[in-house]
Amino acid sequence: MLRAVLATYVHDLNPVIFRINDAIALRWYGLAYLAAFIVGAWLLNVLSKRKLWVLPPGAAGDFIAAAAIFGVFIGGRLGYMFYYHPQTHGWGWLLDDPMVILRVWEGGMASHGGVLGLVVFTWFYARRKKVSWFGLGDGLCVVAPLGLMFGRLANFINGELYGRSAAGVPWAVKFPKTLVEQPAEEGRFLADAVDAAAGVDPRLAQAITEHPDGPHFEWLIGAQRRNPEVSEAIAPYLEPRHPSQLYEAALEGALLFALLWWVRLRYPMLPHGVLTGLFFIAYAAGRIIAEQFREPDSKLIGPLTGGQFLSLFMIAAGVVFLFAARKKQPADQQMGSPRP
Asked: Which residues in the chain show pLDDT less than 50?
């Protein structure tokens, strides 16, 4: 049952770019968000100059900054804390430690929550600026896939949200975190993996088993990032898995952006709302496909993962946007027009 696929890459990427001290560090995940906002603001400004977005040139920076705070961060965090977090930790945090909702550096952002947060934010923003809500959302939906792509690439670097078992797949990856996070699978080999690693670095066994807060397996993961011999030692105890983060980066990110950008430039007179509807449907379709290769991070809902279940609502919302767009005039007749 134990298959040592030594040719399979053992994930050893460090999520920290550089560290100032124990509390302050620059991480790839944070850089991914920053890159998404900068690139998104630049592309929206390009669309504005071509009169393909409802806001004037120069307004994209302020819009993206506000969308990041009130849409992506708040929506994404609330989505995680009220949907995914209770499935593994229960609802006790609401009374015992409500401030955990602010500790985003500990992990926990939901893409579906971020999308919903952006829907709510753009509605208020459009009313305040007296522009078309659909038109405002169209521009955001065109550039949003790049943000999703950067985020999924950061997930891969972090070694999180990995895929299901992929024995025999040439590009499969072995993720050391599964030793702790998948007790029914790799987790049953944890003690053997620790012994194997300790044979390479004797300090590991003591550091892992005698940590004052209990078994501290981050020592093992940190050691294999620094020492290729430790990675080689624990490789036989890891199942090769799909790098589903990269699948999602391609489907929900690069390909979706290419499609929406091409449609935006090729059909400048589309009614407002069409691009938003296309984004919802295409993103949900890509997520449903990618989830087939991703290790479920929440309880299954029938045959569906949590991500697939929520994606069904996005498809329904996309259809509503498309039907609503049919009643609207071509976009070039609405640019800058005051609409709710």
From this structure: 1-6, 214, 332-340
How many alpha carbons fall within 13 Å on the CB side of residue 249?
17
Q: What's this model's pTM, rounded to 2 decimal places?
A: 0.83
What pLDDT does residue 103 have? 65
Residue spans per domain, the chain? 16-164+244-333, 175-237
**Computed from CA positions of residues 60, 66, 70, 75, in that sequence, does the dihedral angle turn out positive or negative?**
positive
Instruction: State how far the alpha carbon of 89 is from the alpha carbons of 100, 102, 143, 223, 301, in Å.
Output: 12, 16, 34, 28, 18
**Residues 281, 304: Cα–Cα separation, whole Å:** 17
Q: Is 297 exposed, middle or buried (0-12, 13-18, 19+ CB in 10 A)?
A: middle
**30-66, pLDDT tens digit by residue?**
899 899 999 999 999 999 999 999 999 999 999 999 9
195: closest CA among 182, 183, 184, 208? 208
Contact 145, 249 (CB under 8 A): no
Rg value, the chain, Cα: 22
H or E element, residue 324 = helix 306-325
Q: Where are the beta strands (DSSP E) in 143-281?
A: 173-174
Classify 330 as helix, strand or coil.
strand
